[in-house]
Inverse folding.
């Protein structure tokens, strides 16, 4: 299975059932899978903060939501993360292609690539980095822990994960 | 102009609400709604200005219940991309109401973009929201809302308002988890 297929299977197995997305080149295959899956609710969103709001609504209606996005977009979301998700203890799983990680060809991605872990941690969203598809099994426990604590989780997927 | 300030428009709206879920934008509008008619079906979004429309869309996509978003003009402009996401999905159980007082009410009534030339009803139309109504007469509010609540297509109502706050409002006596838990209970019932 491709890294995309393994990731998607693992996310679905963990019960996530409402997805919002903002595109990234590394996520292209993932976005096609989301659009083709009739067993989930899914919408592309205008920007990441819009997605945070939509997923907060979905959570309160009983869904298990995830935002599929590039790391640069976390910077667009910080206020909604802190004053909506954290304030009301609403867990959203951020599934993030980590641009600016080793292998990045676009220099302009490096700034947010370097900052994202610190920004997320400071925003009350712990992160894990999955550097190879073989390590995906740790996602289940991390998602369960985030739900137990009523907080969000960032799953960072660097270039090494995508094997491109 | 309708000649009504925001809370007088909220009073008319909350008079017509039965079992709908209501998502209210930001601090002072939440305080006004709380004082007019507190109920577990109200979600008071106390922070995250701009997010009410997005929250309402996520709710409407996830439940069959009717969802009414009470939004403001400046909050809307802060999250203008949500118009596109709402128009793209346009769930039939979503009613998006923008009370447009052409000002930033909570911060001293600085004029907003709509005070000069920005037209939110036209943004909504350009984003393909199926039913968009601009309301500038007070007696149009009740019939327009009745129609929107009874419909099975998404509606956006832009209601023009005068500047002003409800007298005697105060911080909500509810904690975040209290607001969340009682709201989630009725959403999922």
């Amino acid at each position: 299975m491709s890294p995309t297929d393994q990731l998607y299977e693992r996310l679905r197995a963990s019960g996530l059932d409402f997805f919002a997305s903002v595109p990234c080149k590394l996520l292209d295959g993932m976005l096609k899978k989301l659009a083709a899956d009739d067993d989930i609710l899914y919408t592309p969103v205008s920007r990441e903060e819009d997605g945070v709001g939509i997923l907060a609504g979905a959570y309160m209606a009983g869904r298990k939501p995830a935002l599929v996005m590039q790391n640069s977009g976390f910077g667009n979301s910080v206020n909604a993360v802190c004053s909506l998700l954290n304030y009301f203890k609403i867990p959203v799983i951020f599934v993030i292609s980590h641009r600016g990680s080793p292998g990045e060809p676009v220099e302009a991605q490096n700034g947010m690539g370097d900052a994202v872990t610190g920004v997320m941690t400071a925003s009350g969203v712990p992160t894990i980095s999955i550097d190879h598809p073989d390590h995906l099994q740790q996602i289940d426990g991390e998602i369960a822990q985030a739900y137990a604590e009523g907080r969000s989780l960032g799953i960072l997927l660097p270039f090494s994960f995508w094997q491109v | 102009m309708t000649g009504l300030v925001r809370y007088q428009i909220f009073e008319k709206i909350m008079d017509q609400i039965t079992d709908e879920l209501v998502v209210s934008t930001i601090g002072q509008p939440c305080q006004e709604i709380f004082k007019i008619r507190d109920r577990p079906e109200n979600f008071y979004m106390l922070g995250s200005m701009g997010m009410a429309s997005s929250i309402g869309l996520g709710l409407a996509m996830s439940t069959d219940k009717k969802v009414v978003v009470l939004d403001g003009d400046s909050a809307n402009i802060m999250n203008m991309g949500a118009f596109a996401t709402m128009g793209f999905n346009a769930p039939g159980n979503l009613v998006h109401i923008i009370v447009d007082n052409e000002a930033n009410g909570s911060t001293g009534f600085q004029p907003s973009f709509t005070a000069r030339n920005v037209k939110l009803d036209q943004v909504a139309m350009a984003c393909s929201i199926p039913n968009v109504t601009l309301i500038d007469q007070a007696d149009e509010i009740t019939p327009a809302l009745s129609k929107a609540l009874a419909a099975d297509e998404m509606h956006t109502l832009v209601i023009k308002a005068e500047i002003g706050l409800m007298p005697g409002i105060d911080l909500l006596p509810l904690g975040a988890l209290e607001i969340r838990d009682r709201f989630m209970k009725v959403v999922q019932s």
